[in-house]
Specification:
Length: 304
Amino acid sequence: MATLALIGAATQSGTYRRGCLMGPAALRTAGIVETLTELGHTIAEDFDIVPDAVAIDDAPYAPAHHIGEMAGWTRAIRRAIGIAVRAGHIPILMGGDHSIAAGSLAGVADTDPKAHVLWLDAHPDFNTIRTTTTGNLHGIPVAIAAGLDGADLIYGGPITPIDPTRITMIGIRSVDRDERALLKAHGVVVHDMRVVDEFGVGHLIRDTIRRVSEAGGHLHVSLDVDFLDPDIAPAVGTTVPGGATVREAHLAMELLHESGLVRSLDLVELNPFLDERGRTASLMVDLAASLFGRTIMDRPTQAW
Protein backbone atom coordinates (compact mmCIF):
# COMPACT_ATOMS: atom_id res chain seq x y z
CA MET A 1 0.00 0.00 0.00
CA ALA A 2 1.09 3.57 -0.67
CA THR A 3 1.74 6.58 1.51
CA LEU A 4 0.00 9.57 -0.03
CA ALA A 5 0.27 13.35 0.30
CA LEU A 6 -2.88 15.29 -0.56
CA ILE A 7 -1.95 18.81 -1.63
CA GLY A 8 -4.67 21.35 -2.40
CA ALA A 9 -4.08 24.29 -4.74
CA ALA A 10 -7.14 26.51 -4.50
CA THR A 11 -6.56 28.77 -7.49
CA GLN A 12 -8.50 29.96 -10.51
CA SER A 13 -5.99 32.55 -11.72
CA GLY A 14 -5.16 30.53 -14.83
CA THR A 15 -8.69 30.52 -16.21
CA TYR A 16 -11.47 32.97 -16.98
CA ARG A 17 -14.22 31.05 -15.10
CA ARG A 18 -14.68 31.42 -11.37
CA GLY A 19 -15.11 28.36 -9.20
CA CYS A 20 -12.00 26.18 -9.61
CA LEU A 21 -10.63 27.45 -6.33
CA MET A 22 -13.33 25.35 -4.64
CA GLY A 23 -12.00 22.18 -6.28
CA PRO A 24 -9.85 20.86 -3.41
CA ALA A 25 -12.67 21.34 -0.91
CA ALA A 26 -15.12 19.57 -3.23
CA LEU A 27 -12.81 16.57 -3.60
CA ARG A 28 -12.49 16.35 0.17
CA THR A 29 -16.27 16.69 0.57
CA ALA A 30 -16.71 13.90 -1.99
CA GLY A 31 -14.66 11.67 0.29
CA ILE A 32 -11.22 11.41 -1.27
CA VAL A 33 -9.52 10.95 2.11
CA GLU A 34 -11.95 8.28 3.31
CA THR A 35 -11.94 6.49 -0.06
CA LEU A 36 -8.17 6.18 -0.29
CA THR A 37 -7.89 5.22 3.37
CA GLU A 38 -10.48 2.47 2.94
CA LEU A 39 -8.31 1.05 0.16
CA GLY A 40 -5.54 0.60 2.72
CA HIS A 41 -3.40 3.61 1.86
CA THR A 42 -1.93 5.98 4.42
CA ILE A 43 -2.58 9.71 4.16
CA ALA A 44 0.66 11.20 5.44
CA GLU A 45 -0.33 14.80 4.69
CA ASP A 46 -3.46 16.70 3.74
CA PHE A 47 -3.03 20.44 3.40
CA ASP A 48 -3.54 23.43 1.10
CA ILE A 49 -0.69 25.29 -0.55
CA VAL A 50 -0.07 28.96 0.23
CA PRO A 51 1.35 30.60 -2.92
CA ASP A 52 4.51 32.66 -2.92
CA ALA A 53 4.10 36.40 -3.29
CA VAL A 54 5.33 37.20 -6.80
CA ALA A 55 4.79 40.51 -8.61
CA ILE A 56 5.05 40.46 -12.41
CA ASP A 57 3.65 43.12 -14.72
CA ASP A 58 1.28 41.51 -17.23
CA ALA A 59 1.50 44.35 -19.74
CA PRO A 60 4.62 43.21 -21.68
CA TYR A 61 3.07 39.75 -22.11
CA ALA A 62 -0.50 40.66 -23.09
CA PRO A 63 -2.95 39.01 -23.50
CA ALA A 64 -1.46 36.75 -20.81
CA HIS A 65 -2.82 37.72 -17.40
CA HIS A 66 -2.30 36.88 -13.72
CA ILE A 67 1.30 35.91 -14.48
CA GLY A 68 2.53 36.81 -11.00
CA GLU A 69 -0.21 34.74 -9.39
CA MET A 70 0.59 31.73 -11.55
CA ALA A 71 4.28 32.12 -10.76
CA GLY A 72 3.54 32.24 -7.04
CA TRP A 73 1.46 29.07 -7.13
CA THR A 74 3.95 27.30 -9.42
CA ARG A 75 6.95 27.93 -7.20
CA ALA A 76 5.16 26.89 -4.02
CA ILE A 77 3.73 23.74 -5.61
CA ARG A 78 7.11 22.80 -7.08
CA ARG A 79 8.64 22.85 -3.58
CA ALA A 80 5.76 20.93 -2.00
CA ILE A 81 5.81 18.20 -4.63
CA GLY A 82 9.56 17.85 -4.27
CA ILE A 83 9.30 17.54 -0.48
CA ALA A 84 6.57 14.89 -0.76
CA VAL A 85 8.48 12.81 -3.31
CA ARG A 86 11.72 12.98 -1.32
CA ALA A 87 9.79 11.79 1.75
CA GLY A 88 8.71 8.70 -0.18
CA HIS A 89 5.11 9.84 -0.60
CA ILE A 90 2.94 9.82 -3.72
CA PRO A 91 1.70 13.40 -4.10
CA ILE A 92 -1.86 14.01 -5.26
CA LEU A 93 -2.23 17.64 -6.33
CA MET A 94 -5.86 18.74 -6.11
CA GLY A 95 -6.85 21.82 -8.11
CA GLY A 96 -7.59 24.40 -9.04
CA ASP A 97 -7.12 25.12 -12.75
CA HIS A 98 -4.56 23.24 -14.83
CA SER A 99 -1.92 25.97 -14.61
CA ILE A 100 -0.94 24.32 -11.31
CA ALA A 101 0.58 21.44 -13.26
CA ALA A 102 3.52 23.70 -14.09
CA GLY A 103 4.43 23.27 -10.43
CA SER A 104 3.81 19.55 -10.17
CA LEU A 105 5.68 18.77 -13.39
CA ALA A 106 8.70 20.78 -12.27
CA GLY A 107 8.65 19.19 -8.82
CA VAL A 108 8.52 15.72 -10.34
CA ALA A 109 11.31 16.50 -12.82
CA ASP A 110 13.47 17.86 -9.98
CA THR A 111 13.22 14.62 -8.04
CA ASP A 112 12.81 11.88 -10.64
CA PRO A 113 15.10 11.77 -13.69
CA LYS A 114 13.02 8.86 -15.02
CA ALA A 115 9.75 10.81 -15.01
CA HIS A 116 7.33 10.49 -17.91
CA VAL A 117 4.02 12.33 -18.17
CA LEU A 118 0.56 11.04 -19.09
CA TRP A 119 -1.65 14.03 -19.89
CA LEU A 120 -5.37 13.16 -19.89
CA ASP A 121 -7.11 16.26 -21.20
CA ALA A 122 -9.18 17.75 -23.99
CA HIS A 123 -6.40 20.31 -24.49
CA PRO A 124 -2.63 19.85 -24.79
CA ASP A 125 -1.87 23.02 -22.77
CA PHE A 126 1.28 23.43 -24.88
CA ASN A 127 1.02 27.11 -25.68
CA THR A 128 3.79 29.40 -24.48
CA ILE A 129 3.36 32.69 -22.71
CA ARG A 130 3.81 34.32 -26.14
CA THR A 131 1.60 32.08 -28.29
CA THR A 132 -1.48 32.01 -26.06
CA THR A 133 -4.34 33.76 -27.82
CA THR A 134 -6.71 33.80 -24.84
CA GLY A 135 -4.16 34.79 -22.22
CA ASN A 136 -5.52 32.10 -19.88
CA LEU A 137 -2.46 30.47 -18.36
CA HIS A 138 -4.06 27.07 -17.79
CA GLY A 139 -3.13 26.63 -21.46
CA ILE A 140 0.65 26.80 -20.95
CA PRO A 141 1.85 24.49 -18.13
CA VAL A 142 3.25 21.64 -20.23
CA ALA A 143 5.23 23.93 -22.51
CA ILE A 144 6.54 25.87 -19.53
CA ALA A 145 7.59 22.67 -17.74
CA ALA A 146 9.38 21.60 -20.93
CA GLY A 147 11.45 24.78 -20.72
CA LEU A 148 9.81 26.71 -23.56
CA ASP A 149 9.34 30.49 -23.73
CA GLY A 150 8.28 31.88 -20.36
CA ALA A 151 9.75 29.16 -18.15
CA ASP A 152 12.36 31.42 -16.51
CA LEU A 153 9.71 34.06 -15.87
CA ILE A 154 7.28 31.66 -14.20
CA TYR A 155 9.80 29.62 -12.22
CA GLY A 156 12.06 32.53 -11.32
CA GLY A 157 15.14 30.48 -12.19
CA PRO A 158 16.34 27.32 -13.89
CA ILE A 159 14.41 24.06 -13.88
CA THR A 160 15.01 20.50 -14.92
CA PRO A 161 12.80 20.53 -18.02
CA ILE A 162 10.53 17.64 -18.84
CA ASP A 163 11.68 15.97 -22.06
CA PRO A 164 8.74 16.54 -24.47
CA THR A 165 9.31 13.11 -26.03
CA ARG A 166 8.44 11.62 -22.62
CA ILE A 167 5.00 13.25 -22.67
CA THR A 168 1.97 11.27 -23.88
CA MET A 169 -1.38 13.01 -24.32
CA ILE A 170 -4.67 11.14 -24.63
CA GLY A 171 -8.15 12.54 -25.24
CA ILE A 172 -7.07 15.70 -27.07
CA ARG A 173 -9.78 17.41 -29.12
CA SER A 174 -9.15 21.17 -28.97
CA VAL A 175 -5.79 22.49 -30.18
CA ASP A 176 -4.67 25.99 -31.19
CA ARG A 177 -2.78 26.42 -34.48
CA ASP A 178 0.53 27.53 -32.94
CA GLU A 179 0.16 24.87 -30.28
CA ARG A 180 -0.15 22.18 -32.94
CA ALA A 181 3.12 23.30 -34.52
CA LEU A 182 4.90 23.29 -31.15
CA LEU A 183 3.68 19.79 -30.32
CA LYS A 184 4.97 18.47 -33.63
CA ALA A 185 8.28 20.30 -33.40
CA HIS A 186 9.03 18.97 -29.92
CA GLY A 187 7.96 15.36 -30.45
CA VAL A 188 5.11 15.12 -27.97
CA VAL A 189 3.05 11.92 -28.43
CA VAL A 190 -0.54 13.05 -29.00
CA HIS A 191 -3.52 10.68 -29.22
CA ASP A 192 -6.64 12.67 -30.03
CA MET A 193 -10.16 11.30 -29.62
CA ARG A 194 -10.15 10.04 -33.21
CA VAL A 195 -7.27 7.74 -32.24
CA VAL A 196 -9.10 6.74 -29.05
CA ASP A 197 -12.18 5.88 -31.12
CA GLU A 198 -10.14 3.83 -33.62
CA PHE A 199 -7.86 1.90 -31.28
CA GLY A 200 -9.51 2.11 -27.85
CA VAL A 201 -8.22 3.70 -24.67
CA GLY A 202 -7.00 0.34 -23.36
CA HIS A 203 -4.60 -0.12 -26.29
CA LEU A 204 -3.26 3.44 -25.93
CA ILE A 205 -2.71 3.17 -22.17
CA ARG A 206 -1.03 -0.22 -22.55
CA ASP A 207 1.24 1.18 -25.26
CA THR A 208 2.15 4.12 -23.00
CA ILE A 209 2.88 1.75 -20.12
CA ARG A 210 5.04 -0.40 -22.41
CA ARG A 211 7.13 2.55 -23.59
CA VAL A 212 7.63 3.91 -20.08
CA SER A 213 8.46 0.47 -18.71
CA GLU A 214 10.98 -0.22 -21.47
CA ALA A 215 12.65 3.10 -20.66
CA GLY A 216 12.82 2.18 -16.97
CA GLY A 217 10.65 5.19 -16.18
CA HIS A 218 7.87 6.28 -13.85
CA LEU A 219 4.62 8.11 -14.58
CA HIS A 220 3.15 11.41 -13.51
CA VAL A 221 -0.57 11.37 -14.39
CA SER A 222 -2.36 14.67 -14.92
CA LEU A 223 -6.13 14.19 -15.09
CA ASP A 224 -8.25 17.14 -16.21
CA VAL A 225 -12.01 16.99 -15.74
CA ASP A 226 -12.48 17.87 -19.41
CA PHE A 227 -10.78 14.62 -20.45
CA LEU A 228 -14.24 13.27 -19.66
CA ASP A 229 -17.33 13.92 -21.74
CA PRO A 230 -19.28 16.89 -20.32
CA ASP A 231 -22.44 14.76 -20.22
CA ILE A 232 -20.91 12.77 -17.37
CA ALA A 233 -18.65 15.48 -15.90
CA PRO A 234 -20.26 18.92 -16.25
CA ALA A 235 -18.19 20.67 -13.56
CA VAL A 236 -15.57 22.25 -15.80
CA GLY A 237 -15.34 25.64 -17.46
CA THR A 238 -13.76 24.35 -20.69
CA THR A 239 -16.25 21.75 -21.87
CA VAL A 240 -15.50 20.05 -25.19
CA PRO A 241 -18.04 17.44 -26.39
CA GLY A 242 -16.89 13.97 -27.34
CA GLY A 243 -14.73 13.11 -24.34
CA ALA A 244 -14.02 9.86 -22.55
CA THR A 245 -16.83 7.77 -21.10
CA VAL A 246 -17.01 6.55 -17.52
CA ARG A 247 -15.78 3.09 -18.46
CA GLU A 248 -12.97 4.39 -20.69
CA ALA A 249 -11.72 6.56 -17.86
CA HIS A 250 -11.95 3.78 -15.28
CA LEU A 251 -10.20 1.35 -17.60
CA ALA A 252 -7.35 3.82 -18.01
CA MET A 253 -7.02 4.18 -14.24
CA GLU A 254 -7.24 0.42 -13.62
CA LEU A 255 -4.50 -0.32 -16.16
CA LEU A 256 -2.30 2.40 -14.71
CA HIS A 257 -2.71 0.94 -11.24
CA GLU A 258 -1.78 -2.52 -12.49
CA SER A 259 1.36 -1.11 -14.12
CA GLY A 260 2.81 0.02 -10.79
CA LEU A 261 4.45 2.96 -12.58
CA VAL A 262 2.45 5.90 -11.22
CA ARG A 263 4.40 8.09 -8.78
CA SER A 264 2.28 11.26 -8.73
CA LEU A 265 -1.15 12.56 -9.76
CA ASP A 266 -2.93 15.82 -10.60
CA LEU A 267 -6.72 16.14 -10.27
CA VAL A 268 -7.54 19.48 -11.88
CA GLU A 269 -10.12 21.87 -13.35
CA LEU A 270 -12.94 20.73 -11.06
CA ASN A 271 -15.35 23.68 -10.79
CA PRO A 272 -18.01 22.80 -8.18
CA PHE A 273 -19.98 25.94 -9.11
CA LEU A 274 -20.85 24.18 -12.39
CA ASP A 275 -21.50 20.74 -10.92
CA GLU A 276 -24.77 18.86 -10.46
CA ARG A 277 -25.17 17.64 -6.87
CA GLY A 278 -21.49 16.82 -6.69
CA ARG A 279 -21.54 14.20 -9.44
CA THR A 280 -18.29 15.33 -11.07
CA ALA A 281 -16.42 15.57 -7.78
CA SER A 282 -17.62 12.08 -6.87
CA LEU A 283 -16.55 10.74 -10.26
CA MET A 284 -13.06 12.23 -9.89
CA VAL A 285 -12.73 10.61 -6.47
CA ASP A 286 -13.96 7.33 -7.95
CA LEU A 287 -11.34 7.54 -10.70
CA ALA A 288 -8.63 8.24 -8.15
CA ALA A 289 -9.81 5.13 -6.30
CA SER A 290 -9.41 3.06 -9.47
CA LEU A 291 -5.90 4.44 -9.93
CA PHE A 292 -5.06 3.35 -6.40
CA GLY A 293 -6.47 -0.14 -6.55
CA ARG A 294 -10.25 -0.24 -6.45
CA THR A 295 -11.55 -2.82 -8.92
CA ILE A 296 -14.84 -2.73 -10.75
CA MET A 297 -16.23 -5.38 -8.38
CA ASP A 298 -15.43 -3.13 -5.41
CA ARG A 299 -17.31 -0.04 -6.60
CA PRO A 300 -20.32 0.95 -4.50
CA THR A 301 -23.70 1.60 -6.07
CA GLN A 302 -24.42 5.34 -6.15
CA ALA A 303 -27.73 7.14 -6.43
CA TRP A 304 -28.05 10.66 -7.81
